[in-house]
Specification:
alpha/beta, binds adenosine monophosphate
Length: 418
């Protein structure tokens, strides 16, 4: 397999798929540029070699072309600053021929959001709500057809293909997987970030030192159900935190006030608990909560047993007893995976639980554990607490990371390895 380190990009045009899907505030300022910084080693190596960069990414979920809210123009200045060159911008990723041709060694061009085109994902757009199954199938076929032309066009810009977009590696999209077949094995490769991600996942999958503890936080059980089920056959301890806590608590008959809860997932929660028991997994749930009388940072708060949240109050973080219990389990672990905060960490008054988890992971890491932190919000957490360099690895992938942990071969990885 070709590797980026060995490849000399001098005089070559490189199509580099990155994941610049960074969070923006209402004024389109980047609120966390981790993903941009993560791609810099790859981009800089190519420029330093005297290569020409064609940088491609998606951002958000645009539904039309153009969809200005999701324009990559919002991040152009920041990318230029970080890269140390004046990055040019192609307003339309399908009409960049002239700009690509004009590139000189050491120059870079950022393509507009690939997902302005439905072909990037290969999913039909604009279907009427009452479309028949036949119409849906025809629309799907049509977009898959035009996806070939789209992919070919992107490939035509470059001499070589570098995939450094781990965040979308679980999607078989035009620029993340399909494009690879237009380049021979010597001219396609992972970027540095992707290489590191693949190595980190391998450690958690194939080199597990026990006990292995996963901490799953975040808001909803429904978005994490498959991952939780899969983790049950791998981990020794599964800590469930965040908003999911209350679905479990209610399922067991607890009082959760107005805490976030998925009422249609109560049976599922009980089923997961049963499965954990059958598999001998230690499922750890919060015992207390920091409850608030409104969903705001300035709400009045009280610490209550997790199953006795008063009417009109909601659990926005775990309480001190839970922090202690979680920390104990984590500190005794040798492999750790953390995805999702224990509470609404965006509010400063509800960060303690996530911070306690983060600190326990740091301590375990100091004592020789391998710790992998992944998922957009977990990354924001470790950055907020300033501990990103004190854990073994911070992944840039959310869904991609978790699918990889499930043992699935990700299309973006397979396309390079084939
Ligand atoms: P996810 O994207 O599923 O990982 O969820 C992350 C989000 O879950 C964050 O924005 C948190 O604010 C939110 N969250 C965590 N705990 C709670 C909670 N107890 N109530 C409401 N939202 C929560």
């Amino acid at each position: 397999m070709q590797t980026i380190d060995k490849f000399n990009f001098a005089g070559k045009k490189a199509f580099v798929r990155v994941d610049f899907n960074v969070p923006l505030d209402e004024n389109f300022n980047i609120t966390d540029d981790t993903r941009i910084r993560a791609a810099l080693p790859t981009l800089k190596k190519i420029l330093a070699d005297g290569g020409m960069l064609i940088i491609a990414s998606h951002m958000g979920r645009p539904k039309k072309n153009p969809d200005p809210k999701y324009s990559l123009k919002h991040i152009l200045a920041h990318v230029s600053e970080k890269l140390g060159v004046d990055v040019k911008f192609a307003d339309d990723c399908m009409k960049a021929d002239a700009q690509v041709a004009a590139l000189k060694p050491g120059e870079a061009l950022l393509l507009e959001n690939l997902r302005f085109y439905a072909e990037e994902e290969g999913k039909p757009r604009g279907l009427a709500e009452d479309a028949t199954d036949e119409e849906k199938a025809a629309a799907k076929k049509a977009v898959k057809e035009s996806q070939k032309e789209f992919t070919k066009k992107l490939a035509s810009y470059a001499d070589c293909y570098v995939n450094d977009a781990f965040g979308t590696a679980h999607r078989a999209h035009a620029s993340t997987a399909l494009i690879a077949k237009y380049f021979d094995a010597d001219n396609k490769m992972f970027g540095y970030l992707m290489e590191k991600e693949v190595k980190a996942v391998d450690k958690v999958l194939n080199d597990i030192k026990r006990p292995f503890t996963a901490i799953m936080g975040g808001s909803k059980v429904s978005s994490k159900i498959e991952i939780i089920e899969n983790l049950l056959s791998k981990v020794d301890n599964l800590i469930i935190a965040g908003g999911m806590t209350y679905t479990f608590t209610k399922a067991m008959g607890g009082k959760i006030g107005i805490s976030i809860c998925e009422d249609d997932k109560l049976d599922l929660a009980l089923d997961l608990m049963k499965k954990a028991k059958e598999k001998g997994v230690n499922l750890v749930l919060a015992v207390d909560a920091k409850a608030a009388d409104s969903f705001s940072n300035d709400a009045n708060t009280q610490i209550v047993p997790v199953n006795e949240i008063p009417d009109g109050w909601e659990g926005l973080d775990i309480g001190p007893k839970s922090m202690e219990i979680f920390a104990d389990v984590i500190k005794n672990s040798k492999t750790i995976l953390w995805n999702g905060p224990t509470g609404v960490f965006e509010f400063d008054n509800f960060t303690d639980g996530s911070r306690a988890v983060g600190n326990a992971i740091v301590e375990a890491t100091k004592n020789g554990a391998f710790s992998l932190v992944g998922g957009g919000d977990s990354v924001a957490c470790v950055n907020k607490f300033g501990i990103a360099d004190k854990v073994s690895y911070v992944s840039t992938g959310g869904g991609a990371l978790l699918e990889a942990i499930e043992g699935k071969l990700l299309p973006g990885i397979a396309a390079i390895q084939e």
